[in-house]
Design a protein that fits this description.
Largest sheet: 3 strands, parallel
Strand content: 5-15%
Helix content: 40-55%
Radius of gyration: 13 Å
Order of helices and strands: EHEHEHH
Oligomer: single chain
Distance between the termini: 20 Å
Structural class: mainly alpha
C-alpha cells in the first residue's frame, strides 16, 4: 500500500504493521516530550530508510517550545531528539530523513 503515518503516536505493534504495509513513519515534536516514552521506543526501532520528521505546523511544537506555534525552524530539535533515541548523530538523522523525503515525494 505505502504512504506516510503522519505525526505517529502509536505503539510498536502499530508501527510494525504500518511498516509491513510499506508505510514510512513520521515523527513530530511529540518525540521531544519527556513523557512520550512509547513514541521514543518506536522511534528507536523504525528502520532508517522508513523514518521521516515533520513539524505538523502550527501544532505540536517540540520542547522547549511546547504549547507555542510550531514552525519549520524547529525541525532540528526533532532531529536532535531522534538522534538521542536512535543513538546516532543529528547530522545522520538530517541526512537520512532528507533522503527519505526526497525519495518518497520525488523531490
Amino acid at each position: 500500500v505505502g504512504g506516510v503515518m503522519h505525526c505517529f503516536t502509536e505503539d510498536w505493534d502499530t508501527a510494525r504493521a504500518a511498516l509491513d504495509l510499506g508505510f514510512s513513519i513520521s515523527m513530530s515534536g511529540i518525540v521531544s516530550f519527556r513523557n512520550a516514552r512509547t513514541v521514543h521506543e518506536v522511534a528507536a526501532k523504525v528502520p532508517d530508510d522508513r523514518l521521516l520528521i515533520e513539524t505538523d505546523s502550527p501544532y505540536l511544537a517540540p520542547a522547549p517550545h511546547r504549547g507555542k506555534r510550531n514552525e519549520s525552524s524547529f525541525l532540528p530539535l526533532i532531529a536532535d531528539k531522534l538522534a538521542e533515541v536512535k543513538r546516532i548523530k543529528t547530522d545522520d538523522v538530517a541526512r537520512i530523513t532528507s533522503a527519505n523525503a526526497r525519495e518518497l515525494f520525488n523531490l
